[in-house]
Every structure is written in structure tokens, then in C-alpha cells.
Design a protein that fits this description.
The chain is α/β, with parallel strands linked by helices and 420 residues long. It contains 13 helices and 14 strands. It starts with a strand and ends with a strand.
């Protein structure tokens, strides 16, 4: 079991923090990547009740700030969170596509476990909306295997469509049944997002105005409001292009015993990689490396899937939520879609609720911030200070994050346990 605990956390509002002039195509930044970093870092330190001088090192997860916001060497800016307190402290940026935030956390955990440092600040951040749609698509494609995928205009919707087609063939689902299952996943995300004030799609947003809280409502949308992006994935099967930041403070568990009320133990982690080119893989109907990451994390934490009360899973596309749910063992392989249609994994499920935050589908997906944000959301739930929807039948004790990078290439699984 890990000897590290989370003692503080913060999540910024997620959204598209720009103004776009449709006539001139000019984009004006309304909340910069620098402002997002400072807000998240200061918020996490305040939540932990410490100052910059108490931090030994900083890790920053950010996928492509050089492409999205013209700022490489981003971690060095973290000093501005507390210029005096953080001066001379080591700062490192981590990149692993959509799992950049989780990998930043894991590197900080390794440092704390080594004994070299006691306390770390981990920040995840991405500013995506300074680019137009084509620019965002190109930036994200750099997380694929470029020679065979990005270079040939095989976008991420196309890559996850391969998983959807493989899953459909493996479990002999007809087109309508698969669409219904995927719509159930999207509807759950939108429903939970309505209760998350920090979500990109929350009350008053597009999903709320269109009433997309049931799979039937999504399936009834006219084609122009839910076009096919990469068959069988439609617009409402895709996550959002989002700006945002999140941060965590972690500490040696034996140090947290002194005068701290809200502590969550990092009970186990699993980090496993798949081959980068999809042409080199078989079994495009499951997350094989994800299942290995789950095995490692669960073994370290001493749990099984039956012990999980909450899960934040990587729903960059609705098919990914089905696969992630099965990867964690919350559904039998091939049955996750049926379970969602039957009403499982909601806030009223007395076993396990999934993506109470709204997930990437509604909370949003600022790529480098996502992994950290998933941990923030579970930390807040487990300490009784939830952001958004809550389980109606029990106080959760154990939560699991499953964050992936690229086309399920990087797989990060974290088990969190409430200790106070």
C-alpha cells in the first residue's frame, strides 16, 4: 500500500474561456493558462492549509501547452503561485497525452515514497480554446502514432470508432442497440453535469437547454444537432474542448496524522502502457493494458471491484466509458451498456456511482488537467465536501480513478481510501 495521502485539492471552473469573433475569426483569451495555473495552485494550498514554503517540489501535467498556448517550459511558471515560498523549489512538467495529470501525480508519489521529499504540489492544466477546430484536431492528433494515424488524418474520433466497431462485432450488437447504449452513457454524464457548478456543460448549458438527460432524448435529436463524426460515434458521443486546471497537495501519510481532518490515502496505483500504433494491436474491443493497470492497483490496495463505491472513468468518447467500466470489473465484459440502460452507476446505485462529476462528457476535458481533476473530484467526495452530485444511499469509502492517454495507450488506475 502506498504511503502517500492527499491533504488538499482544488478544481477551477471548466469551460471555453475565450471570445470568438465569427466575422474576423479573432480569438480573445478571457482566462489564460497562467491564470488557471495560479488559481488551481493557490486553491489547493489553501485547501490543505499550507503555504508555498511548505512544498518541497511541484509537478505540472500539461499535454501540449506549446501548441495550444505557445508556452513550453510551463512548469517554471508554477513559482508565481507563491513567488517567495516556492522560489528555488524544483518544478517538473509531465506529458502523457490525456493522462498527463495522472502521470504528474504518480511521479510526485514516487518522489514522496522515496523519502527525498515530504510534500508535493501537483497541477494539471490545459488551455485548448485559443485554437480553432482544425488546430485542436491537429494538436490532439499529435498524441496518436503520427506516421500511420495523425499524418493520415486519422483523428481521435476515428481511433475510438475502431474500438466501438470492434466492441460491436465482438458482442454482436446491432446498430440501434449500440447507439442506445452509448446514448445512455452520454445522458448520465449530462445529468450529473447539471449538478456540478464547475462543469463545462452545467445548468443553463447546451445539454440542459436541449433536455439531454435520457438516452431517448439524445437518440431523438435531428441529424444537424447530432451529426456522425466517425461512425458509429456521433457528436454527443464526444467529449468537450475545454480550458481548465486542477491541483492536489500530497504528503507522506505518517505526516498527515498531525492536526489534519480531511485525508484520503492513495491506497494503490497501476500504470501500464499499450503499444502506440493501433496497427500493432489486437483485441480492439477491450482495454488490455488497462486491465493490467487495474490488477496492479487493486493488488496494491488490497481491494476488488466489489469494494468500489465511486469511480471517475475516462469518457473521452462514450465507448470509452463502456470499456472503462468493464476494465474496472464493474460490469461483465460486453454488458456495461446494458447495465447503464438498466440504471446502474447513477447516484442512486447503492454499489458504485460512476462519473458523478459529469465526466469528460459534461465536466469537460482540458487534456492535461483531466487526470488531476478526476482525483480532485473523488477526494472531495470521499472527504464529505463533494462538488456536484452525491451518492444518495451511502457515504463512499473507496473511490477509483481510471485515466487513459492517447487511444488507451497510457493507462493509470488509482485507488483512493477515506481515512478521516
Amino acid at each position: 500500500m502506498s504511503k502517500v495521502s492527499i491533504i488538499g485539492a482544488y478544481n477551477s471552473k471548466f469551460g471555453a474561456f475565450v471570445q470568438k469573433n465569427r466575422e474576423t475569426s479573432k480569438i480573445t483569451d478571457m482566462k489564460s493558462i497562467y491564470e488557471l495555473m495560479i488559481e488551481a495552485g493557490q486553491g489547493a494550498l489553501a485547501d490543505a492549509g499550507i503555504e508555498g514554503r511548505d512544498v518541497d517540489a511541484v509537478w505540472v501535467g500539461s499535454y501540449a501547452p506549446g501548441i495550444f498556448a505557445n508556452q513550453e517550459h510551463l512548469s517554471a511558471f508554477a513559482m508565481e503561485i507563491d513567488p517567495e515560498g516556492l522560489r528555488f523549489k524544483p518544478m517538473t512538467r509531465c506529458e502523457d497525452a490525456c493522462a498527463s495529470g495522472s502521470v504528474a501525480l504518480y511521479d510526485a508519489i514516487y518522489a514522496v515514497e522515496s523519502g527525498r521529499i515530504r510534500t508535493a504540489l501537483v497541477i494539471g492544466v490545459e488551455k485548448m480554446n485559443l485554437l480553432d477546430t482544425r488546430g485542436v484536431t491537429n494538436a490532439l492528433a499529435c498524441a496518436s502514432y503520427w506516421p500511420e494515424e495523425g499524418f493520415k488524418a486519422v483523428s481521435f474520433p476515428c481511433l475510438f470508432a475502431e474500438y466501438a466497431k470492434g466492441y460491436q462485432a465482438r458482442y454482436r450488437l446491432n446498430d440501434v442497440d449500440l447507439q442506445h447504449q452509448l446514448a445512455a452513457v452520454a445522458a448520465l454524464g449530462y445529468t450529473n453535469g447539471l449538478d456540478n457548478p464547475l462543469a463545462h456543460f452545467t445548468k443553463g448549458g447546451p445539454s440542459d437547454k436541449l433536455g439531454l438527460i435520457t438516452p431517448e432524448a439524445i437518440m431523438a435529436l435531428p441529424l444537424e444537432k447530432n451529426p456522425m463524426i466517425a461512425a458509429p460515434l456521433r457528436l454527443h458521443d464526444c467529449s468537450l474542448v475545454t480550458d481548465g486546471a486542477a491541483a492536489l497537495v500530497i504528503m507522506r501519510s505518517d505526516d498527515t496524522l498531525v492536526a489534519r481532518e480531511k485525508i484520503v490515502a492513495i491506497a494503490g496505483i497501476g500504470h501500464a502502457n499499450e503499444r502506440l500504433p493501433i496497427s500493432a494491436r489486437s483485441g480492439m474491443y477491450e482495454y488490455s493494458a488497462g486491465k493490467e493497470a487495474v490488477r496492479r492497483a487493486f493488488d496494491e490496495a488490497g481491494i476488488t471491484s466489489a469494494d468500489i463505491n465511486l469511480a471517475e472513468v475516462h469518457d473521452c468518447f462514450t465507448i470509452s466509458q463502456l470499456l472503462s467500466t468493464e476494465t474496472l470489473g464493474l460490469s461483465v465484459d460486453g454488458r456495461a451498456g446494458f447495465d447503464y440502460l438498466e440504471g446502474r452507476f447513477t447516484r442512486n446505485d447503492d454499489r458504485c456511482a460512476v462519473n458523478l462529476s459529469g465526466g469528460l462528457k459534461a465536466k469537460g476535458h482540458p487534456v492535461g488537467a483531466t487526470g488531476v481533476s478526476m482525483h480532485v473530484m473523488l477526494y472531495k467526495q470521499l472527504t464529505g465536501d463533494p462538488i456536484g452530485a452525491v451518492m444518495s444511499k451511502k457515504q463512499p469509502e473507496i473511490g477509483v480513478v481510471y485515466n487513459i492517454g492517447g487511444s488507451a495507450v497510457t493507462n493509470c488506475v488509482t485507488v483512493l481510501k477515506r481515512t478521516s
